[in-house]
Specification:
With about 375 residues, the chain is of the alpha/beta class. It has 14 helices and 13 strands. Helix 11 packs across helix 14. The protein binds pyridoxal-5'-phosphate.
Length: about 375
């Protein structure tokens, strides 16, 4: 049996919606499906405003632009994340500052963030790894008291919540990804949630996303012609992508339930190995409602991790690891970090292994992964 690491899932409604776009005759953005998707995101998650973007990366870049980051500013984030989190800050000339993670969730904590705060700290970007929330209540209390802005990198956390409040709606800005590897996808896409009623921010977001023009105001009949009024770029996704995404988001809870079943089966089957200390695995802390984006195990050493990965591959099972921590990657080293500066991040990223988790995985495929993995773990732990 061949088990790929991640297979895109289609609900079956995508093509019909795309055909409808062609019939409607508007393929550029800001049309019928873009409005449906943003209304769905706003009502489902309780966001004040949801703007669609061409990627999660662009949502982060837009957040950094809206925040008007300057070269002297520092932004605290985990080192255990995708480069886009740091690039968004660097593209504004500001400096990413890497904080250590909690070994149970691989998320930054209020304590690790507090240790990095200086008078230059302008923002914090918590990353909700695998759809598990950072301790947002405490983190918001800390940042609010110091006047520091929070931009959530909720790229992996669409439809996940903490204490009943959806991720992406805690900070001033929340950034989603609809990349092909995420739970809900349109191949490449993203969204920024603007959790504010500040008219200056809302108006500026409409301009930045439309190449620095007041085209939105023009379309709404507020100005007679549109022109260049600010900086900006082209962050608006095509209607074709939004039609595809609309089909996916309509099935959001069904997709989440399917992933939950796979996640729970992995957790149940691997629990004996956690109890005997052979591995650690994904945990969902109290208060967190996951979207089950991924499932990982942590082996006792890097060589053991690599060996399990190899032996799974021999059985046709693809597994993966990530991230090369940003602070010890070639780019991060240019900031003067040494690997030992963030020892938990450095250690866990070398021992982590992600198991295949696709929305459409059959029970037989899940059981095939489990029987092979448990056999390998039993042999290695003797
Ligand atoms: C996927 C991801 C991104 C980037 O999203 P894209 O849509 O691929 O640009 C950013 N941050 C994290 C944590 C991600 O997992």
């Amino acid at each position: 049996m061949e088990i790929p690491f991640n297979v895109p899932y289609y609900t079956g409604a995508e093509v019909g919606f795309i055909e409808d776009v062609l019939a409607r005759g508007q393929t550029q953005g800001d049309g019928y499906y873009t409005q449906l998707v943003s209304a769905l995101l706003e009502s489902k998650f309780g966001a004040k405003k949801a703007l669609l973007t061409t990627s999660g990366t662009h949502a982060l870049e837009l957040a950094a632009l809206l925040l008007e980051l300057k070269p002297d500013d520092e932004v605290i984030m985990p080192s255990f994340t995708f480069p886009s989190t740091a690039n968004a800050v660097m593209l504004r000339g500001a400096t990413p500052v890497f904080a250590e993670i909690n070994p149970d969730t691989l998320n930054i904590t209020p304590e690790t963030v507090a240790a990095r705060i200086t008078h230059r700290t302008k923002a914090v970007i918590p990353v909700h790894y695998g759809g598990i929330s950072c301790a947002m209540d405490q983190l918001m209390a800390l940042t609010d008291s110091l006047g520091i802005t929070v931009i959530e990198d909720a790229a992996q956390a669409v439809n996940a919540s903490y204490q009943g409040k959806y991720l992406g709606t805690w900070g001033l800005f929340g950034c989603f990804s609809f990349h092909g590897t995420k739970n809900f996808t349109c191949g490449e896409g993203g969204a920024i949630l603007l959790n504010t009623e500040d008219p200056a921010i809302l108006k500026r977001a409409d301009i930045l996303i439309q190449k620095g023009t007041n085209r939105k105001q023009f379309l709404q009949g507020e100005v007679g012609k549109y022109c260049w009024v600010d900086q900006g770029s082209s962050y608006t996704p095509s209607e074709i992508l939004m039609a595809f995404l609309y089909a996916q988001l309509q099935a959001m809870d069904e997709i989440t339930a399917r992933r939950q079943k796979i996640h729970q089966r992995y957790a149940e089957a691997l629990a004996p190995f956690v109890n005997s200390g052979v591995i650690k695995m994904s945990v969902i802390p109290p208060g967190c409602q996951s979207n089950y984006h991924l499932f990982y195990i942590i082996l006792a050493s890097e060589s053991l991790r690599d060996r399990v990965k190899r032996e799974l591959a021999e059985k046709g099972i693809a597994s993966a690891f990530h991230y090369v921590p940003l602070h010890s990657s070639p780019m991060g080293k240019r900031f003067g970090y040494a690997p030992a500066d963030l020892p938990i991040t450095e250690d866990l990223s070398r021992r982590l292994l992600r198991l295949p988790l696709s929305t459409g995985m059959t029970e037989m495929e899940v059981e095939y992964v489990i029987s092979n993995l448990t056999a390998i773990l039993e042999r290695l732990s003797q």
